[in-house]
Amino acid sequence: MEHARRPEGRIHFAGEHTSHEPNGGSMNYALESAVRVLLELSGS
Ligand SMILES: Cc1cc2nc3c(=O)[nH]c(=O)nc-3n(C[C@H](O)[C@H](O)[C@H](O)COP(=O)(O)OP(=O)(O)OC[C@H]3O[C@@H](n4cnc5c(N)ncnc54)[C@H](O)[C@@H]3O)c2cc1C
Questions:
Q1: Shortest-distance Cα residue to atom 10 of ligand 1
Q2: How many domains does the chain have?
Q3: What's the rounded Cα separation, in Å, for the pair 34 and 37?
Q4: Given CB 3.0 to 4.6 Å as the disulfide criterion, which of 9, 29, 31, 38 pairs with 24?
Q5: What CATH number did the domain enclosing 25 receive?
């Protein structure tokens, strides 16, 4: 869900519900989202 992973100011959102895969529902998607947020925070 595009809107669920969009940062809101300094607040970044992670978790399976922010995955690129609709209805992801696994720890893989949760971890994928964590990597995405780390890249966002590092400016990559
Ligand atoms: C019974 C079951 C079995 C599963 N088996 C597997 C499996 O074998 N393999 C697999 O890959 N996945 C499995 N999953 C899915 C996996 O558990 C999830 O995909 C993963 O935990 C999602 O991680 P997350 O960090 O996005 O969310 P969560 O692990 O749900 O973490 C969210 C956290 O936020 C906290 N929270 C919620 N609201 C608030 C609030 N307002 N303020 C503060 N804290 C809040 C919650 O208490 C929770 O600790 C299973 C799920 C279930 C229910």
A1: 26
A2: 1
A3: 5
A4: 29
A5: 1.10.10.1620
Least confident of 4-8, 19-23, 25-29, 40-44: 19-23
Query: For ligand 1, what atom is nearest to the CA of residue 15?
Result: 26
Furthest C-alpha separation in the chain: 27
- Give me the domain span that covers residue 32: 3-41
Global pTM reads 0.87
Is pLDDT larger for residue 31 or for residue 20?
Answer: 31
Say how many Å lie between the CA of residue 17 and the centre of ligand 1.
Answer: 10
Alpha carbon distance 33, 21 (integer Å): 11
* Interatomic CA distance for residues 40 and 34, integer angstroms: 10
